[in-house]
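Pipeline run #58 for the internal structure catalog. This entry was flagged by the ingest filter as a single-chain record with no existing model, so it goes straight to prediction. Upstream metadata was stripped on purpose; only the residue string is passed forward. Reviewer on rotation: M.T. Logging verbosity set to normal.
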Amino acid sequence: MQYNKIELQTLTDGGKAYIVDWGIGNIIILAALVLIILLIILLVGSFRKTKREQAALLEKRKLNDNYMELETAYEEISTARNELSLKYDELKRSKDKMQKLAYSDYLTELPNRLAFTEVLDGVMLTLRNEEVIAIMNVNIDNFKAINDTLGHSYGDELLIDVTHRLKQAMDDNDYLARYGGDEFVVLTQNLTDIGEYEAKIKKIKKIFDYPFVLSMKEYFITVSIGIALAPKDGKTTQVLIKNADSAMYAAKANGKNTFVYFNDSINEKLMDKIQIQSELRKAIENKEFIVYYQPQIDLNTEKIVGFEALIRWNHPEKGILSPSDFIALTEETGLIVPIGYWVLKSACSQLKKWEKDGFRNLSVAVNISARQFKDQDFANMVRDTINETGINPGNLELEITEAIALLDLEYSVAMIQKLKDIGVKFSLDNFGTDYSSMNYLKRLPINNLKIDKSFLESVTDNHSEQTIVQTIISLAQNLDILVIAEGVEKNEQAQFLKSVKCNKAQGFLFSEPVSVDMASQVLKKIGTL
């Protein structure tokens, strides 16, 4: 049976159902299949879309994660960069600080030896044929005495003050540095007029005309200056600096407070100085020093009242050398301390021998250097020497110069008084060559005042000199100070000194300094009080 349409028919079991025509059924099935396929396609498309969206979401999440990682890394890098920048700045500051420490003097903040040497190296390498430069070595005179007396803190204060003053004397083409200790150096370029340069030297000396205030007191300071010119005096840095240094020492040898230009003879003298320094050390070991004695005469009785002990060096090749040939070097090297002690002990021992020979009222005078006098153990050393030799301390006279006494007046007064308390007497030597002020003279508890021989050279025919000497004697005696005239060589001088009531005299008129044997003979010949 064939169905061409949809009809409602009764089934065999009595039920009813729609009967679909075959053709229509096929159409329905086909439509269903198409719908299913479409549905599948839609589902597949939807699935793929979902997968793409999930993949895109996942990718987005990954991108977000990567972005966060990049941002974190960027922040870390930025932090690290900032830290590195800070470290760099710190290292740069540290380097600048180290550079300053390496090339600057910590005390004065001037360029130091290293900085000066490098600058001079550069200048010497580029020095033109017609160009002249100058090196000036400025050294403070007696700086060590200030350090030893007042202490290093005041010495540092003086160096700072000196720096300020030197800066005032500098020009634009000057390079000032502290070369070390009490030594300053000045490099001057493009030197064309030596007259202008000497005006600069005088300007530097002029700034030291005014006193420096240290420890609430005024001190007058001088400088010795050595100058070397390039290329004349040296074509390398080291040679030029060495020659300027040699010239400075020559200025000191000339009496200090002056300036000297380098010349070849200076190095020869310096080598001689080094040789003598070496020989001095051997002289102590070989016992080459001897003591000469010059009698001191009472002008009223014309009898010997004492001797001044004067050191001599019995040099194995040069013979007998006077103190002017070597004492300054012993001061510089510190050898003056053991040599000075030996002179004191030798003089005291000889005084004891003369006492045993019956000359009990005889005195002996011993010169004391600044180095010895400023030694804190000086008083004990003198006391021990007196006890060891067994002399009467009242017969020992110690001589110091005006310059030594005034270097630290308070210390000098205390030290003199300490030794006077045990009976030792003191003489002020070379009076009239330095300050010559009665104001300080009345403060010093001295027994004798020695008028320098320079006053006696023309005293017999110079009324002004006569007045000065007479005034000194009168004022000193009013202070209960005895007066001794040094360097008396003529009878006219002795007669004048007697007329103005000078107490004692010594000089070639009576006797030159002689050996101990000759001194004993002179003593027996002239006699004592």
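catalog note: DSSP finds 17 helices and 18 strands in the chain.
catalog note: The CA atoms of residues 159 and 181 lie 9 Å apart.
status: ready for reviewer M.T.
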